[in-house]
Batch of 2 targets.
Target 1
Amino acid sequence: MVSAPFLVSAPGKIILFGEHAAVYGKPAIAAAVSLRSYLLTTKHAAEFSDCVTLEFPDVKLQYSWKIHSLPWNVVPKRSMDTVRPPSELNTALMEALEQSLVAVLNPLQRSAALAFLYLYLCLCSPDMPGMTFSVRSTLPIGAGLGSSASVSVCLAAALCLLSGEVSPPETKGDDDSDFNAANYASIELIDAWAFLGERCIHGNPSGIDNAVASHGGAVMFQRMTKGNPNVRESMRNFPPLKLLLIDSRQPRRTAVQVANVATLLQNYPLVTEPILNGIQALTSEAYKLLLMPKEKCDDVWEERLRELVRVNHGLLVALGVSHPKLEAIRMAADELEIGETKLTGAGGGGCAITLVKRDVEESRILELKERLEGHGFEVFETSLGGFGAGCLLPTKSDAAEWEEWEDKLFSLHHMLGLGDREDIQKTVGVGSIDGWAFW
Ligand SMILES: Nc1ncnc2c1ncn2[C@@H]1O[C@H](COP(=O)(O)OP(=O)(O)OP(=O)(O)O)[C@@H](O)[C@H]1O
Ligand SMILES: C[C@@](O)(CCO)CC(=O)[O-]
Ligand SMILES: [Mg+2]
């Protein structure tokens, strides 16, 4: 069992093909990105030891509950036969939590707090010491890059560590791809709990975002249908793709976009089902292309992949999940003949990706970036694949450093406008400092 303080982290993701259709059991392809969320768990001072506190400055939420005021009495008893949680939320607990959240009205804050409370009550006990759970993210929030899943995975990982459900990652061999059975069992459990966090945040998730945030790398994912388990195939030799990632900065919530598609499907099943089937077919084509050996990834291969990007975007437009700002991004990339563009994630705003032609001159890419930034869009540089969830436990020697991080990055300073993405990455970021270990 691990005790506070400690840090956990999980990545965001880019869906390359198949969003929305994924909710209906169709395959989708996604990869982790280097932008991540970080969760610091600290113990309260003695005078607040009967409280649990959330500090979510990215969504401007700070809230404390008296631990004993929470509805522990309705927490479902865990089955002795299985360590995995059920995939459905418990209705009685969800209803009881309404009471604990009456003062948190903003939907962005409320859904994150709900995910926390649900997992906290299921995984912890009322006799645990008072703690603060502070989240900061280098991901744009509500922008299609899986911020909700990366936060859910962080919450699940921290609470599983505190309750002893999982142990910190065991050191792998020299080759980090080495399989370790204990780590695998831990990350599967974290993924399953994070799925419930995602359910609290957006109702009907497919599970692809939390799967990527937990396991990292690139995957083909297919949600369980008719009792068949989820399929999660890791795509190890994912080809290097030249992508631009552009945030339209148009806020939207995944919950709303997913619900809109459900309404379309209900109102026009004969129209909507073929669109979802079309997305399924193109994702299967893309999967075959992405698994091709490197020597076959020639110009024709590249053109076919770009065509699939274009068709995927068109079908998402037909589902009603684009936005004029996403169309403006697509048109700018089309005009400069940079490559093909699609929205990524739930759409309705948020991010688009452009799959850049290999032979495009850097000057044209620069021109596109300038044009987009001139319109108030943000162009990100990130790499695909990479680590999934991990944790950083302090050693005695760096106690002072931990206090500094807490102050600089995770305290309420951010609400006053201090501390940005680069600060987070530089100070505690995976890849910037030593000590991170991954399940
Ligand atoms: N850094 C954060 N701190 C607190 N809550 C967060 C943070 N990041 C995300 N969230 C929670 O996740 C919600 C956004 O999730 P949503 O699913 O709508 O978008 P996304 O995950 O960024 O995009 P997509 O689901 O399309 O990949 C926020 O409203 C908030 O509840
Ligand atoms: C829109 C969606 O397909 C992707 C969101 O990143 C929803 C999901 O699969 O959970
Ligand atoms: Mg999300």
Target 2
Amino acid sequence: MRSIVKGSVGTIVGETTPTAFKFLISKEVGRGTYIKAKGDGREWILAQIEDIKRSNTAYTVNQLNDAARNYDSREMMIAESRVIGVESNGKLRLPTSPARPGESVFLADEKLIKATLGLSKGDMYIGMLKGYDIRVEMDANTLVQKHCSVLAKTGSGKSYTAAVILEELLDRKVALLVIDPHGEYASMKEPNNVGDFSKYKVKPRGYDITVYTPGEMAMNPRADRPFRFNSLNLSAREVAKMIPNESSSSGQLGLLYEAISALRAETDAYTLEDIIEQVVRSNSKVKWNLVGQLESLLELGLFSGTATPCDELLRPGRAAVIDMTGIIPELQAMIVARLLTDIFEARKRRLISPGMVVVEEAHNYIPERGTGNAASTNIVRTIAAEGRKFGLGLMIISQRPARVDKNVISQCNTQIIMRVTNPNDLKALSKGLEGMTTDLEEEIKRLPAGVAMLVSNEIERPITVNIRPRKSRHGGVSTEIVSREKAKASSVQPARALEKRSRPQSPESSGNEKPVRSKKSQSSGGLLKKVFGRA
Ligand SMILES: Nc1ncnc2c1ncn2[C@@H]1O[C@H](COP(=O)(O)OP(=O)(O)OP(=O)(O)O)[C@@H](O)[C@H]1O
């Protein structure tokens, strides 16, 4: 056997192929380490250690080999390595012939890793390659245009990582619209004060964030402004989108179309109140159910006051955060449906800036078939399929990959995967990702918080990244349950009331009874109005 070459970490042994080789380890290396060996053309082949096996001929399965006196000298460590490729003129290719047994293996240097993996093509700094001092940079334009997803189990650092990407996009003057079900993104206004900033060379700062609430301002201390829709001349389709699917029968929808056509024939300008009055005038038996739903819509306050203009929501270098805290899921999906339809239409007509729509807890807004229904599914699918043409990108964030619409996920060119352990979610990831191996699946199960696997057409193979500290303050903090028992008890009451009252009518209702409008609800809007409010 050849003597060990200085600086090498091992020698190639056994059978090799253009895509894999094994080497006998002479210096400590670990799984995931990037290594290099000379190919036949004397160019460097970059490979990564996938697995390490240890054996010792002195210890066989059947008996100890007493003839072997020096047990330590008989121990062997074999590293199984997967070839990533050979870099030539900025392009990656597989070596034409397999690496030669007997060749020395070295640790790969930073330059080779960056060039071969394609890590320095971008301008967005999201973190460091795990185990290395190598910055991972992604291309902002590609990420926005070709969409992106962040998928991981809860507590793994999903929203933290999403915010890191949003910071980079805001630094590059991208306009962002964030659908934020839990009010986690308002804290981006403030600079971060926890993290190893010097190691990652990050400077804390706050961003230009405006938080909107579709509810009442007084109920959401984070909100800067109310979010309101225009109630003038609503089309039947627009109104229908805001009414829960399961409770609006075809008879009621027909009634809605009739009422709005009659109004259009009479006047140039009508409001939601006018639609309600018109429906009341109908002779239909099912009208009261529809009236109930329309009145609930009116009471939410979403259609009162000044409508929020679309061009205010997408502004370069700023993020508009729609904070959905306190709004029931069904209504959230309807708000998202209408909002994104307006944004997409305005963008198609070039009336607003290009930008990116970020959908947190995406399984609620675009549920996979069989796992639920949401009014917002179609428009999010449309943006995923056509947004690129019109400069509207999409970022999908979810803790339940298996419950998110596969059509949308498959349109995301960049996938950021953090720790996932649920077997259904892992299966969904495996199905949706090219090149997913059982080894990668195992790795995903074991990723620590704050470490992400980046899969993208822009990089040559999935890489693991230590996500950099945030520049802005993180807002996704878990609530302690035990020590806050009292606070929890006092907060249960309004939440329940909210859910109960915001449903237009009970499922048992026949649809023929006139809904009771209490004096209080007519004058001040009652509890519903208190919770959701008017502008
Ligand atoms: N790159 C990171 N650097 C430092 N801390 C991190 C990093 N990523 C995550 N964390 C920490 O891990 C915790 C969980 O992160 P985060 O809130 O983003 O999780 P999540 O997956 O979004 O959870 P949830 O689904 O509950 O919102 C946070 O307290 C955060 O401070």
